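Recap for those who missed Tuesday's class. We walked through two folding examples back to back. For each one, the amino acid string is listed first and its predicted structure tokens come directly after. Nothing is annotated here on purpose, so try labeling regions yourself before you check the end of the notes.
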Amino acid sequence: MPSPFLDLCGNSIPQEQVLGCGSSAVVVLRDGLAVKTPLRYRWSSDVEVEMNIEVIQREQDVYRRFQTSNAQCGGIVNCVGFLREATQLAYMTNGNLRTYLGTNQPSQQLQLSWFRDMARTLEYIHDRRVLVADIASRNFLLDSDLKIKFCDFSEASLLPLDADMDTVDDNGYTTRIDLGFLGAVIYEVVTGEKCEIDLFKDNLPSDGRATWPQRELLPNTENVWLGSIIEDCWVDGGFQNAHSLLRALDSIALHSPSPKPLYDRPSLTGFYFIQNLVYKRSIVTMAVILGALGTLALYRNRKQL
């Protein structure tokens, strides 16, 4: 089946070059780079393509905001270059997090490392006065060392640099919603179950304002590892910002199980059973010999008398 995607010149994009696609862009592998171009299907109208070009350009403005920061952040996929109608990004060899979780079970140590990097990067993003708005496992990429990176800012809000992030509200989108989405990603990684969140479930069709869902509509976190942290991402009165989330994650200590005593190890159980049996029999044998010697000595003493 031919690829449904076309480049802006109308040429078919080979399916083997396609790394992924979203609602407004398709990402293709070119010359070792992941190139994000406006989504164009064979049946797309010129108006639709132009709207997707505008989304690409708005996202480029977000990347430029990050690049002008004095403190660069390693938790965002590296933006290599800008074209008017495409963004060149570093290629992440291990793909997106959701696909990775489909075939791999990361250790708790690796998971905790990811969560701390996510929170640290979100703290940086908010410090640069950006709301991500679309945080999901499909929008995190893994490099060759399994380091995790934010990669999609097509839905992001680029706010004034003097905005108060504790109170900012962009049509319902807030830092709390970013934290809530990040809590959903943590839940998905820990449990292996997707946690889809609909911010418009209870809204009128004419109301485009985002609203965080009521707690009872979200999964139960009882007996889930890091469940209390996930809860504080989801409820009022929980984490105030990404910094408080990071502080909570930094307080988590992973303890390796204590090594079992040698005699409890299956490979050595038989050996120590035999050794113990021989030892016990040796004591019994020695007791019998000493008893016999004592009886003989008593008999000789009586005979001499």
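Example two. Treat it independently of the first, because the proteins are unrelated.
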Amino acid sequence: MRNFATKTGLILIGIIAGILVSLNFSAIADKQTDHTLQSLPIEELRAFSQVFGRIKSDYVEPVEDKKLITEAINGMLVGLDPHSAFLDAEEYKELQIGTQGEFGGLGIQVTMEDGLVKVISPIEDTPAFFAGVKAGDLIIKIDDTAVKGMTLNDAIKKMRGKPNSEVELTIAREGETEPLTFNLVRAIIKIESVKSKLIEPGYAYIRITQFQERTGKNLAEAINKLYSESKVPMKGLILDLRNDPGGLLNSAVAVSAAFLPRNALVVYTDGRTEDAKMKLLASPEFYLRRSGKDFLATLPENIKTLPMITLVNGGSASASEIVAGALQDHKRSIVMGSQTFGKGSVQTILPLSNSTAIKLTTARYYTPNGQSIQAKGITPDILDDEAGDNPRLLREADLNRHLSNGLGTAANEKATAKKNDTSSKKIKNAKNKDKDKNEPTEFGSSDDALLTKAVAHLKLMVRSPQQKTSKL
């Protein structure tokens, strides 16, 4: 038995060393350039091999080597932060499809907390959204299977399935004495990235629900269409990024570039490697993924000076925070709403083979003025508690093992992120409680209280271009 474990250990140490060297993991070598066995934690690898040997010899049922090693890799990544992960063949494919705006599922963003799946946010216009699944819900059962003990990836796989098939979610919700049951029909989720309309003559409304491959081009088409439909010269624009979970970085740069001067700094990143240090400018080479015609070249000339307000809330994350931060720092737009989510870390997809990859956090995002978005978010110029937040909404600083802001302690960062959050658990009167149980208010509708305020403030800006940002 001991010989088996020893031999297994030597083989595994060799395998792991080879993987680390091939991936050029500087973290293991602690910034050393000599990635040799001498720089690897041999004692820890020996302990790993002993555990591997014990499982192979003593576990109640036989376990395949591939499963053990895959789970070990997954454990390494999951233990880092909420966004690093191992992607098997199916997940890698889903990731690639998702950035193109169409994928299968229920339409919820989830994380793992205390062994249960916790809803970060339902995605707009999806089965989960229409059924009434809310941020902060704990999924305790999927069909007849308890979630406790599952990995997050296993739970996600179980919620996925063929379109038009049914799945039952049992949910524990704060304030409810009994679990809630939701019978959802899986669907091919087609997300309309850009929605637009004229609120009234001369005033345009554009909502971005997610940053996808064609978002920049769709935005340009929407702007040109709004200008052509308006019977009077365009006076102002509202850009709505509420509940936008983010998406592709180059699309965030494209959206920012539509409103900023050419070559203005949109965002920069900083990490341990040179590849992780980038400056992204409002220029075609930073948002066109392929060589081709610049879709922003046809925009009306005054789009870069048109008075505008950007709406955000606690569901605005990642790419949407990049856009809001860039427009705010360049004083191009007033940002209005509540403190954003605070997801300011860069995930790099590193393929391991033709079918698998790892998603690894490699850098932090910084706004043009040098503010770290991570675990803090964007603080609006005008704070308003009608930004459309759910009172149970999670933020990056609430997630277990979240990456620090890089500028202070995690506790201080969490306090800072919450300081200006006017929507945190303020829904206490009966009217708001009833509203919370109904279907969510549609952003951009006549019932959208924050939009109504934004339009009024935008008109003041148009009448008085030097209008100062202030609490309405």
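Answers for example two:
Confidence is low (pLDDT under 50) at residues 20-37, 421-438, 468-472.
The longest strand covers residues 357-366.
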